[in-house]
Design a protein that fits this description.
- The complex is a heterodimer.
- By secondary structure, chain A is mostly helical.
- Chain A has four helices and no strands.
- Chain A is flat and about 60 Å long.
- By secondary structure, chain B is an alpha/beta fold.
- Helix content of chain B is about 60%, strand content about 5%.
- In chain B, helix 6 runs antiparallel to helix 7.
- The longest helix of chain B has 29 residues, at about 125-155.
- The chains are: A mainly alpha, B alpha/beta.
- Chains A and B meet through helix 1, helix 2, helix 3 and helix 4 of A and helix 1, helix 2, helix 3, helix 4 and helix 8 of B.
Chain lengths: ~100, ~475
């Protein structure tokens, strides 16, 4: 009997939880705020689903109710992607060592 | 147009880049590189999606325009937001992820053919369950984050809102979700799907309103985790590896942060979620007691004198510093002290502020080198050998009662041993108890000098007196 592809995805999911567990424990506590903003940015990869939904119709067919929700989700996710990565970058720029200080 | 197999490999690569992005955060030196990995992963995922759909009609242009529109707005927010507002920003961003997850789930429900989930009215059972989970968790994340945002922003009072039967109502609604998913699978009815989302919105609100302001670090971490699980749910629906990996990463990240925050408060996750902490009315009694005990209070001149004659000073910042935006003045004060060859370090309690790492970001903003900033367990032994502890805007996290009084609500919570310092300077606006509603024994100690003023103003005055 063939293995359902769902099981493969479930395996990836479970293994990723473990990877996440060990990776996140090694994050230094002083960077917990950037951790939250960057996880927020990467979870916006949900935009992938939004793009698929939005581009499901052809130009002649125009908009369907499904594609409208896709377009809306694209805007939301885009705000998050750019906002999340840039604010993380801005925060990380501020973390400097003693040596890097002027003088 | 690229084959599904090739795009699956690219999605895997983008998932791996996301893992490296988090990995980079293990040290400030590698963190910036990590963020670039994250950006690269996202870029790959988006480009591969366009290529695999292969629809470059005028609709593609619309998508690009919306991407740029949203991106510009996001970039604008990212550059404009003051660092003190970071907690509400993160809460706000979580709500967007949650809502995006809901929208994608709705899109998949209305048009399952594009996602290969079957046809409308006859969606594959597993896909239906997955998208219901994604939609429900997404909706809870959305409305919960909105409430957290309003509380953090001060638009809504930070005080817990409780009413009788609250927990039963939540329980019934929670069970209702399961019943609805069950009937949704049976009937494929659109109405049940809409009701499911609506009820989830309500649950999100009900979950967060009873949780008080200082428990926000747990709430934000928890919502972070939820946004991950919502993404994972959608990832299963779309059979997309990048989304599944990311969802698992974000979900476990948020869960670990919630755990760390709960542990730092010595409270169980459930007691935080059930809420109502800090709403007790026993604070009236402590008000009466307070009047009888003598308190030594001083001014900026006294504080400057004490610190000038010290050889080591430990700074303990808290939420009050963030509210008063005192981090830059504080940095100025420390610079002056350092010029006098006084050793200055910073001690940070894990739950100081309104989100994990909140204080660290503010100090970093004020150009404090991160190797002068220490976590609770790394610095707690140093208090006994230090001359002055300068507590600015922190309260409950320094209360010795947590170590001595088993009846205290915060008993057992790890606290900073500031009382072991030769003298303690406590910058605070008034004697009012902290968030936990309990009196801080530290105020009445002989070696404590209370500095009653706004944190920023007091620090500035001390700077003047240090000359």
């Amino acid at each position: 009997m063939e293995i359902d592809p769902f099981i493969f995805r479930l395996s990836i999911f479970i293994l990723s939880i473990f990877v996440g567990y060990y990776v996140v424990w090694s994050v230094t506590p002083s960077l917990h705020t950037p951790l939250m903003s960057v996880t927020n940015a990467i979870s916006s990869v949900i935009i992938v689903g939004a793009i698929i939904a939005a581009l499901a119709t052809t130009a002649e067919e125009g908009l369907s109710s499904s594609s409208i929700f896709g377009y809306l989700a694209i805007i939301l996710a885009a705000v998050n992607i750019f906002g999340g990565f840039l604010v993380t970058q801005r925060m990380l720029q501020m973390y400097k060592k003693k040596k890097d200080k002027k003088k | 147009m690229i084959s599904p197999n090739l795009s699956a490999i690219f999605y895997l690569i983008s998932g791996i880049l996301f893992i490296l992005a988090l990995r980079g955060l293990s040290s400030p030196d590698t963190s910036r590189q990590g963020n670039y990995f994250g950006i690269a992963g996202m870029t790959i995922a988006i480009i591969v999606t366009f290529l695999s759909i292969g629809n470059f009609s005028s609709l593609f242009l619309y998508v690009l325009i919306l991407l740029i529109l949203g991106g510009t707005l996001g970039a604008f927010i990212a550059f404009k937001i003051p660092m003190t507002a970071m907690p509400e920003l993160v809460a706000g961003f979580h709500s967007l992820v949650g809502l995006a997850a809901v929208f994608v789930a709705i899109a998949a429900f209305l048009n399952p053919e594009v996602f290969n989930l079957g046809i409308t009215g006859n969606i594959k059972l597993a896909s239906l369950i997955e998208m219901s989970i994604g939609a429900a968790v997404g909706a809870i994340t959305f409305s919960g984050s909105i409430i957290a945002f309003l509380k953090l922003r001060g638009i809504m009072s930070g005080a817990p809102i409780t009413f009788s039967g609250q927990h039963y109502l939540n329980l019934i609604l929670g069970l209702g979700i399961f019943v609805m998913v069950f009937y949704l699978c049976k009937t494929q009815s659109e109405n049940i799907f809409w009701t499911l989302i609506a009820v989830s919105f309500v649950i999100g609100i009900l979950l967060i309103i009873p949780i008080g302001g200082a428990d926000m670090p747990v709430v934000i971490s928890m919502l972070n985790s939820y946004s991950g699980w919502a993404a994972a749910g959608i990832g299963f629906t779309l059979e997309n590896t990048a989304l599944i990996i990311t969802g698992a990463l974000v979900g476990s990240s948020g869960a670990i942060l919630s755990y760390i925050m709960c542990k730092a408060m010595n409270r169980s996750f459930f007691s935080v979620i059930l809420g109502g902490f800090g709403a007790d009315n026993s604070s009236n009694d402590s008000n009466e007691k307070k009047d009888q005990k003598p308190v030594k209070s001083g001014n900026a001149e006294d504080a400057a004198f004490l610190m000038k004659n010290a050889s080591s000073v430990i700074i303990v910042p808290g939420y009050g510093m963030a509210v008063a935006q005192a981090q830059h003045a504080l940095r100025e004060m420390v610079d002056k002290l350092k010029k006098n060859d006084i050793k200055v370090t910073y001690a940070i309690h894990p739950v100081a502020g309104r989100m994990p790492g909140h204080m660290n970001v503010l100090l970093a903003e004020a150009n404090v080198p991160y190797d002068e900033v220490f976590e609770l367990e790394d610095i707690n032994n140093d208090f006994a050998n230090s001359d002055v502890a300068f507590v600015i805007g922190a309260n409950d996290v320094t209360n010795p009662v947590a170590k001595t009084d088993p009846k205290s609500p915060i008993f057992g919570m790890p606290v900073l041993d500031v009382e072991k310092c030769k003298s303690v300077l406590f910058v605070k606006r008034s004697l009012s108890p902290g968030y936990a509603g309990i009196d801080n024994e530290l105020f009445y100690r002989d070696n404590t000098l209370m500095l009653f003023a706004d944190a920023k103003k007091m620090t500035e005055d001390i700077v003047k007196n240090l000359d």
